Every structure is written in structure tokens, then in C-alpha cells.
Amino acid sequence: MTVLLDVRHVAKAFGGIKALSDVSFQVQAGEIFGLIGPNGAGKTTLFNALTGLYPVDAGEMRLDGARLDGAKPHQVLRLGLARTFQNIRLFAHMTALENVMVGRHARTRAGVLGALLRGAATRAEEAETRARARALLARVGIERHAARLALHLSYGDQRRLEIARALASEPKLLALDEPAAGMNLAERVALRELLLQLRADGLTLLFIEHDVKLVMDLCDRLAVLDYGVKIAEGTPDAVSRDPRVIAAYLGGDAA
Amino acid sequence: MPSARKRAWAGFVLLAVGLAVLPFLVDFGLGRTWVRLVDFALLYVMLALGLNIVVGYAGLLDLGYVAFYALGAYVYAWLASPHFGVHLPFWAILPLGALLAAAFGVLLGAPTLRLRGDYLAIVTLGFGEIIRIFMNNLNAPLNITNGPQGINLIDPLRLGDVSLAQSHVLGGITLSAPHQYYYVFLILTLGVVFVSMRLEDSRVGRAWVAIREDEIAAAAMGIDTRNFKLLAFAMGATFGGLAGGLFASFQGFISPESFNLMESIMILCMIVLGGMGHIPGVIFGAVVLTLLPEALRYTGDAQRALLGRIVVDPADLRMLLFGVALVAVMLYRPAGLIPSARRRRELAAKGDVLEQEQASLADTAR
Hints:
heterodimer, B: 366 residues, mainly alpha, ABC transporter involved in vitamin B12 uptake, BtuC, disordered C terminus
């Protein structure tokens, strides 16, 4: 097993509040790694730090050997880390297909000149972008909505569209921020199937989730954050028996 | 399928013939002045399409767009008038003016990258005024712009030995100066339309719209938002600079007064009124807003005919009617007179959403 994502001693403070202190963990290539913790534990802060939205105060993050800390969001994506957002951030007034086509941006090249001349290379690239975007919509099961505006899709379909858009960038690691939030039971089952399929295709997944059942069921390993500190890491079984984790979730002494 | 193709061709030919004979029809029906106004309408189409890239696609509210128009005009005036005694041909100056405008577009864009919405509007508004005031005051110690008097006797467009400022007889048809400029402007306008259409439906256009929709998500999808915003400013400014050069050659005289804030706002109105981000809408908006105020000048004659005297000065009434028209559009057609298919779908989506709500209700009931 090779380490795909290596996070070492990462710290981040907002004013006097330590959102993350000395967080370290490794995600192996090909696994589904979960990140859980009570509200305000620092999960989303960690995601934002990983994807270049916030600079970190200390520590080092590497994806497949390349430094992530200090990289801008678009550079992080180019390195192979794509993400979705907890509060869905689609391009609301673009169609579902166009949303996924934007996801291909980093893997395509056409500039102003290409757009104006529309030579053979540009046309081939556009056709490929379109074909791949369609294939990805089919993959997440919303190809029938290709021509609809993103804002008109149902909540569950919007979440799927975000995943398709992220996949379009051909990531090594897909980071999902609460992908099941707000989904009904049927949608959750379908999401679980999709994530398992993605792993079967060799993709590595990092995800934050509140639905403990889904996490326990899906993750190979997981880390637990509480008040910005990692309090446990391991297989779902081991973590669920950890007294510190139980204390963090249910309250009481961590003795 | 073949019939649809035939119809498209027929429409295309009809449009081409219509555009070709338009100045003669206008000349015959309304007079030479109106041919000039049609020429101006074409200039404004170019300007509006340029601003549409910045505001309509990339979503950056720019209230100082007229500065690029001014730059293009002054570059043309400096390089083709007795002011400096330089007389370069237009094909050398127009690209130069467009390029300089693009450079200033980047210059304006760079410090405003972190600004959005109202704040960006205020900074760009300031930029527009700075350029105008510079042009107004750069007559001492070195006389660069000739100050408020402006620059006069600017060379007309010249194709070889043929000056477009003089009338020519071609195969029994007399072509006046406005007629000749019409064809030059038409060709360049079609070029600008072509560039806009190609950019809209491309990787670059999608990146711009993505930035407009959600900048953070656009960056997270690998779009270098800084570069693409600067590119939008530069592309928009290029069109502005080009239109400015044409304006200077057409008018023969420019002064800072032609490039005030009102112009920027007028161009923005054209986009908003016609349908932001939608090329046919923007063209329509530009044509209507150039010609409508002129048509409203005739309210003076109507008053005299109806009431026997002029009750309200036509100039005042003109702006009043104009304002009422704008308010009416905002109230009844908020997406513009010719909104894009996207916007139309958005506004007509009520049935759609209802259907979805019912579907999700059915889900929960299960």
C-alpha cells in the first residue's frame, strides 16, 4: 500500500480559536477514508486547508509526494485533489452538462485563439469534453437532466452533479464534504453504491459525514476529530469502541 | 432536416441583403442624419458586446468601460491628425488602440481582483473618471490631449487613395460618407459578433460563466480565476478600444466630454435592457437605446401639432420617457427584452419546480 495523502502536524487558528492543532493522518491509495467528529470539530476547516482555500499556520500536506500547503485552489485540483462542498456550490445557471464540462477545465487547453479559430485540435477537445461529461452524468445516474439548469435539479441530484463535476477533473483523490446530507433513504443507498463503484475503479476517497451508519458501513479506516484535535484513527470497529470517541459524541469524561 | 437547413440559408441571405440595402432605405425614408445614427448604433453594438464579456459573462460590474472607448479614440487622434503631425494609416492605428485599451484593461483589472459587485463598480467608476479627467487636463505642461478643446481635424478612414469622408459614385449609385462608414462598421461589427459567439461557446466562455456563478467553486474546479478575470477585462477593453478608434475617424473631432460617466451607464443599460450575456439581446439593446432617444426628439413637433406650443422641452421629455421605458422593462421583463434561453427557462420554471416538489413529497410519503 502506498500513501496517497500525507497530512503531518497541521495547525490552523482563527484569531484565538484553534480550529486544528497538530493533526496528522495518512490516506492509503485505493481506500475510503472517513473523517468524523461532532459539529465544530474542524472537519470542514481541514478540507478547506487541504484544497487551498485557507493557508495553514503549521504543518505539511502532500498528495502523492507533491506539496499541497501553499498551493492555490486551482493548483490543488491540478495536482489531483478534487472536492465537493457541504453547502452545494454548483454553477446554478449553467446546465448540468455544462457544469461537468467546466470540471474538465484543468485537463483541457483551448485558449482564446483556439476558441476563435476553432481548429481541428480545439474541435476534437470540445467533442471529447462533451462526450466525457455525458458519460459522467450517466455514471452518477442523472444523464436525463443533462440539459436542465443545475438549480432546477433535486437536492440529491445536485449532490450527484457535484460528484460528476469533481470526477471530470480526473482526480487521484476525491474529497466529499458530507455527500449524504439532506438525502432521503433511497438517495443514500444509491450514493453508497456509487461510492463503492468509484473505489472499485481505483479512486481514493476522503469523506466527511455525519451519518455514522454510512461511515461505519463504507469506510476502510477513519479518523475522529474533536475540537481540532485528532482523538482516534483506525478501522470503524476499533474507532467505535474507543472510549474517547464515545465521550466526544455522548459527552462525559474521557477517562 | 434539409428544409430546416434551407430555411436557415434563406434567413441568412435575407439578413445579408437587408443589412446591405439598409442605409439606402434609411436614407430614402428618414434622411441622411439617420444613416449617421445607424452608424452610431453599430459603434454601440461593438461597445455593448465588449462590455457584455466583462459584465454578462464574467459577472464583473464595470462602470468605467467608456475609458477604453476614450483610449482607443485618443490613440487614433494622436496618430492621425495635425495635433502631432502624425498621419498613420488606420490599419496600423486601430489594432494599436485596441491593444493599448487591452493593456489598460489588465491594469484596471489587476488591483480589483478581490472586489466584487458594488465595490468593483465603485472602483471601475473611478477609473473611468480618472481617464476622462486626465484627458481634460493633459494640455500642460506638454500639450498631449489639447484639454477640453479636444482634438480636431482627425483623418477619416482611407482605403488606399479613397477617403471615406467624401462621396463616391459607384456604378451609378452615390455613396455618401455615412453610407461608406456604414459598410466598414458593419464588417467590423460582424467580426465582433463572431468573436463573441465563438468565445461564448468555448472553454474560455464556460470558465467566465463559472466565475460569475460561483468564484470559489470555479477555483476549486481548476480555473485560475485571476487570469480569467484579467482576460475578460482585456477582451472587453479590446472591443472598446476598437470602437473608440472608429468613433474618432468617423467624427473627425473628439473631446473628453464624449467620454463621461453617462456613456458608461448607457452602454450598461443596453446590456441589461437587451438581455445580459445573450448576444442577440445585447445587439438589440444597443440599437434600441441608440435610436430611441433620437426618435424621442420628435416629441417637440408632436407637441406643437397637438397643443399648438411646446409645453415640455423635448430634451427633458426625452429623458423622462427614456427613464419610464427602462423602469417598465425592469418591471415586466427583468431578464431583458430578448433574454437568453437560459434566463427564459429560469423564469418559466415554476411548473417544473412544482412537479419536483410533488415528486419529493411522494418520496417522503413512501
